[in-house]
Write a sequence for this structure.
């Protein structure tokens, strides 16, 4: 005779569990950057499903940017794409850990590079003193990130904040870089047909004297695809 029980809620120490699972990402920036890149590729794939419009390859631009330490800012690693997302998708997708439906959009499963939506977040959480996900879409700017205590939430004053396109670009330090982008991307952005997302990690751990060029070389080998060398940005 089987034992009958009264079901109870599962209780988990969430922060301890995330610390345990996140150990795999410690001390490996190449693996983490690859996760950010895959997330950006998936963002373009989801965009086609959401808008029912094929995004030209020329507009599927992803930039890895290393920002050197200055008098006012620490070292930062960033991954930039020109999709942008909404407050709603941050709430329903990005905030979730271990989501088996992470690749599902509009009720359909997409062929994506990501799995359960964990890798990019673990990299943000484990390998930087602080990190954030800054995104702009339809004239609305959101910042969601991890603080020094590894807690995550929307940034004060930057949740569902209305912002002009140029102000949003300036806030994330994309104003100068934007002028160098292909003209078709700039036109679509000005018409608010696309936005942007900048995933940024400040004060990366275990960098030491690592050369950025070496990180890029290892990243290219890891992904087995050509990566155009980037210059440092102050």
């Amino acid at each position: 005779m089987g034992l009958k029980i009264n079901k109870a809620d599962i209780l988990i120490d969430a922060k301890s569990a995330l610390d345990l699972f996140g150990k795999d990402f410690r001390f490996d920036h190449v693996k983490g950057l690859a996760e950010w890149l895959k997330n950006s590729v998936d963002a373009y794939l989801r965009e086609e499903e959401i808008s029912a419009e094929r995004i030209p390859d020329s507009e599927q631009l992803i930039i890895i940017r290393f920002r050197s330490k200055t008098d006012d800012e620490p070292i930062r690693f960033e991954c930039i794409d020109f999709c942008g997302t909404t407050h709603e998708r941050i709430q329903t997708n990005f905030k979730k850990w271990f989501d088996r439906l992470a690749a599902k959009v509009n009720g359909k499963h997409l062929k994506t590079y990501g799995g359960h939506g964990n890798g990019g977040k673990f990299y943000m959480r484990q390998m930087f003193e602080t990190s954030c996900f800054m995104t702009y879409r339809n004239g609305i700017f959101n910042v969601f990130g991890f603080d020094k205590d590894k807690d995550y939430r929307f940034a004060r004053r930057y949740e569902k904040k209305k912002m002009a396109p140029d102000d949003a670009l300036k806030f994330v330090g994309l104003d100068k870089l934007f002028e160098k982008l292909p003209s078709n991307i700039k036109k679509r952005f000005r018409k608010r047909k696309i936005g942007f997302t900048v995933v940024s990690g400040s004060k990366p751990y275990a960098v030491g004297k690592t050369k950025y060029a070496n990180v890029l070389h290892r990243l290219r080998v890891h992904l087995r695809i050509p990566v155009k060398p980037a210059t440092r940005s102050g």
Residues 230-234 have pLDDT under 50 and may be disordered. Residues 29-51 form the longest helix (23 residues).
